């Protein structure tokens, strides 16, 4: 009987060890898969090495085990549905909720237990970065050496050029001394007596040619003054340096952020407005560093990270405590597009009523420069600009030319109803345009449309 009990205990012990080993094998996560899942589901609120909206998650499994005596099963429940865990009366779950300003953590019911195990494995043993950076560093080193060699060669060329110039100057000095000696001879003095000695004598001798030249210069001067006056207020290509570097290529181009997410009044307002820093914080509250693959020439990750810190300073945001300090600073943006006070221009009128017409007209006139957003017709392809610049002249002539060539969109619900009875009359009134109604036909050239 005793022997039977001993065998039973040994069997149960072996079974429990086998089950434990099986559970351990099952619980083993894949850090690579966990990294992808972490980036997809967690990076909006968490990072491994610092607090964002939620706490830093690097080593969270070991930390919870040491500090709270909680295992991975607790983390499974918390990640799946933190609210349900809190409502069950879990003490530590409620403590975490209170500590982080009662911010509700998103539930992830779609994640399987293995998915969460993979994520936790990533937080415990994040995979080492691939050796691409080293290769890049080697490439950069080679490039740096080549640049140093090139700089050295350029310095040598500059030095040789300077020595050549010095030698040339010495030769010219000797030649001038010879000329001085020649001028002192009696033969040259007699020859100089027969030559013109002043500008007045030259003018009298060639009076007709001189008057013609003066007249030509006067005409050129008048043309220069007129041309200069015509270009007053025209700043095509103007791209000032802003207090915070903002790359539209990264935001609107690479990340496909819609123009109206930041310039919300462009569609229904007169002006598009510069977004407030609160609009920036909608995203940058959880994006404290740049992790994109694109870098502008001469700029690195540290540069972009420093610009994000400027946003935090302006907003009065403390990323360490994830809270506002109340100490804000204005951002003195430099305005690029600014209509004169005597000009009326409404973005709403163009973006809402004329959106499809403007896009269609631009694409017909510029087959090699197609646009998909109405903003680009006037402001250029902003989604490719690192620094926004004025893409067009914005002169009166430029606007009038657009009104003369852009057809009114009669498929637009507003226009179709508004011009219901006028449409046929305009077709007869403008037979040269083959029944096409352009903006000038509906008052687009009237002074009072654009000027007060």
TrEMBL record:
Signal sequence, renumbered to the chain: 1-27
Keyword terms: Electron transport, Heme, Iron, Membrane, Metal-binding, Signal, Transmembrane, Transmembrane helix, Transport
Domain Cytochrome c: from-to ranges: 29-127
One GO MF term: electron transfer activity
Transmembrane segments: 156-174, 214-234
Name of the molecule in the record: Cytochrome c domain-containing protein
């Amino acid at each position: 009987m005793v022997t039977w009990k001993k065998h039973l205990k040994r069997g149960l012990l072996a079974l429990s060890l086998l089950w434990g080993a099986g559970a351990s094998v099952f619980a083993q996560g894949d850090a690579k898969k966990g990294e992808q899942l972490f980036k997809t589901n967690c990076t909006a609120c968490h990072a491994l090495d610092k607090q964002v909206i939620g706490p830093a998650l690097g080593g969270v499994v070991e930390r919870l085990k040491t500090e709270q005596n909680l295992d991975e099963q607790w983390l499974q429940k918390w990640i799946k549905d933190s609210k349900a865990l809190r409502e069950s009366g879990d003490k530590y779950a409620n403590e975490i909720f209170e500590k982080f300003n009662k911010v509700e953590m998103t539930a992830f019911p779609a994640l399987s237990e293995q998915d969460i195990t993979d994520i936790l494995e990533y937080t415990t043993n994040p995979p080492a970065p691939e050796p691409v950076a080293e290769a890049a560093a080697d490439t950069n080193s080679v490039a740096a050496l080549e640049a140093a060699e090139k700089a050295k060669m350029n310095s040598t060329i500059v030095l040789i050029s300077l020595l050549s110039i010095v030698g040339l100057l010495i030769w010219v000095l000797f030649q001038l001394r010879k000329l001085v000696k020649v001028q002192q001879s009696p033969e040259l003095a007699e020859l100089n007596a027969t030559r013109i000695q002043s500008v007045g004598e030259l003018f009298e001798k060639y009076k007709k040619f001189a008057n013609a030249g003066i007249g030509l210069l006067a005409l050129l001067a008048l043309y220069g003054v007129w041309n200069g006056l015509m270009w007053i207020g025209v700043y095509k290509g103007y791209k000032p340096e802003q207090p915070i570097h903002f790359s539209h290529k990264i935001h609107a181009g690479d990340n496909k952020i819609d123009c109206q997410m930041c310039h919300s009044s462009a569609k229904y307002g007169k002006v598009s407005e510069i977004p407030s820093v609160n609009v920036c914080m909608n995203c940058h509250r959880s994006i404290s560093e740049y992790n994109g693959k694109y870098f502008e020439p001469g700029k690195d990750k540290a540069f972009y990270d420093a610009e994000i810190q400027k946003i935090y300073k302006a907003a009065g945001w403390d990323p360490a405590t994830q809270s506002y300090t109340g100490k804000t600073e204005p951002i003195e943006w430099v305005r690029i597009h600014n209509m004169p006070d005597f000009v009326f221009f409404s973005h709403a009128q163009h973006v809402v009523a004329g959106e499809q017409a403007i896009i269609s007209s631009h694409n017909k006139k510029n087959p090699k420069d197609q646009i998909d957003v109405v903003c680009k017709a006037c402001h250029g392809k902003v989604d490719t600009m690192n620094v926004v610049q004025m893409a067009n002249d914005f002169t009166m002539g430029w606007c009038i030319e657009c009104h003369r060539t852009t057809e009114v969109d009669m498929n637009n619900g507003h226009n179709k109803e508004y011009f219901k009875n006028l449409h046929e009359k305009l077709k007869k009134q403008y037979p040269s345009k083959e029944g096409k109604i352009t903006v000038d036909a509906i008052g687009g050239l009237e002074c009072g449309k654009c000027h007060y």
